[in-house]
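Appendix C: a fully annotated inverse folding record. The material below is reproduced so that readers can follow the format used throughout the book. The structure is listed first as tokens, followed by the designed sequence.
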């Protein structure tokens, strides 16, 4: 398999996990939606010699309901890791569980939504036809498809251009319709690779707010992005990869805290007040003392200007502001039906413990003392 690395074969593990054939509906397992233990991936050349070690000994856990950021420069192994989590590649070594099951378990796929880094859509389908097509792949009934497509188009701000061909969309609009298709099945686990790529600051802010809203409703989000400010704003925990290895992981506060400086936040002071604070601090910290005025971010200023223009009725030919969160993604039974029998989503929920390979999760999450 090339995987963008030239003519190389992927070196899949020879053994297989002992997974039962039946796979009932699964939401999560023991509060852990993704678990990797010692996962490695090698790519071999024509003569089956190992040439590229894309992922090397990755240990990773993503908990239910959190936004987890997977970071790293190009070539660090992020895309390969995502492909293994989605079951598109088999690891050369190590074990993976997604929603408590093997990642190639087909029944798990209906609980996963995926937005790839590049939006590959059928150019000659309209936005509405695109969402309806993906809804049909999940065998959603006609009425459910219609309701979800309407809600998602409103949510991503494309209802005004829903009958325009996707090939005529701007890149930002294509990312919006791509995000909508990743949510059409109301997934429990959402994998987003550069979700705001090609979007203007307004669209980026709206997508970030949407991702945060999904997490508050119990959905798990695995986010890959090169926009570190975006990751810092959104993610509960982050992992940084380089050269196929996990280099650091933890919360943003744990990773970003500086121990060599102390920052004081005070109300607005006049020059006399600043001088008194400086004099008091100079007694113990005579060197390296700075007094700075806080500044707002460029993003907040930009958004304020745009919102002011919108409130004044300024017209735009681009995508509109996104609407409220689609009802079927809200965690209750509004606008949501079970595919099989038309019951509400709340009635269709299954016990989390059912269908989970407990032995697999235990082996993945336990570490030797």
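Designed amino acids, in order:
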């Amino acid at each position: 398999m090339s995987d963008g690395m030239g003519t190389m074969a992927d070196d899949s593990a020879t053994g297989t996990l002992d997974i039962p054939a039946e796979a009932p509906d699964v939401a999560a397992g023991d509060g852990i939606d993704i678990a990797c233990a010692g996962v490695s991936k090698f790519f071999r050349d024509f003569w089956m010699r190992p040439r590229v070690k894309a992922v090397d000994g990755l240990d990773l856990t993503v908990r239910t309901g959190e936004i987890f950021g997977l970071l790293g420069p190009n070539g660090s192994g992020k895309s390969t890791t995502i492909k293994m989590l989605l079951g598109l590649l088999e690891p050369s070594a190590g074990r993976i569980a997604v929603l408590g099951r093997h990642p190639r378990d087909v029944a798990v796929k209906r609980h996963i939504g995926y937005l790839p880094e590049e939006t590959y859509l059928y150019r000659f389908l309209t936005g509405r036809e695109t969402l309806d097509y993906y809804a049909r792949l999940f065998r959603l009934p006609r009425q459910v498809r219609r309701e979800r497509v309407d809600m998602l188009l409103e949510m991503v701000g494309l209802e005004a251009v829903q009958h325009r061909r996707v090939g005529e969309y701007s890149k930002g609009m294509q990312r919006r319709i791509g995000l909508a298709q990743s949510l059409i099945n109301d997934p429990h686990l959402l994998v987003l690779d550069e979700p705001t790529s090609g979007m203007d600051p307004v669209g980026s802010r709206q997508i970030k707010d949407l991702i945060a809203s999904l997490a508050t409703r119990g959905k798990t989000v695995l986010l890959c992005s090169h926009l570190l400010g975006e990751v810092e704003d959104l993610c509960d925990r982050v992992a940084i990869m380089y050269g196929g290895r996990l280099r650091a992981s933890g919360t943003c506060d744990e990773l970003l805290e500086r121990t060599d400086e102390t920052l004081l936040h005070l109300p607005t002071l006049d020059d006399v007040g600043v001088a008194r604070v400086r004099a008091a601090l100079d007694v113990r910290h005579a060197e390296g003392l700075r007094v700075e005025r806080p500044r707002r971010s460029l993003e907040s200023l930009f958004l304020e200007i745009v919102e002011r223009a919108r409130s004044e009725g300024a017209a735009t030919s681009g995508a509109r502001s996104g609407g409220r969160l689609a009802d079927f993604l809200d965690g209750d039974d509004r606008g949501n039906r079970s595919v099989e029998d038309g019951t509400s989503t709340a009635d269709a929920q299954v016990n989390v413990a059912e269908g989970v390979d407990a032995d697999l999760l235990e082996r993945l999450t336990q570490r030797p003392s």
